[in-house]
Amino acid sequence: MRQQKIANTSVAVAELGFGASAIGNLYRITPSDEATAAVEAAWTAGIRYFDTAPHYGLGLSERRLGAALRDRPREEYVVSSKVGRLLVPNEEPRGMDSEGFVVRDDLRRRWDFSRDGILRSIEDTLRRTGLDRLDIVYLHDPDDHWEQAAEEALPTLADLRDQGVIGAVGAGMNQSAMLARFLRETPADVVMLAGRYTLLDQSALDDVLPAARELGKSVVAVGVFNSGLLSVGRPAAGMKYDYENAPPDLVDRALAIAAVCEEHGTTLPAAAIAFPCTHPSIINVTLGMRGPEQVVRNAELHRRHMPDGLWDALRTQGLIRPDVPTENGKRSARCP
Question: One of 49, 56, 138, 197 is an active-site residue; which one?
Answer without folding.
Answer: 56
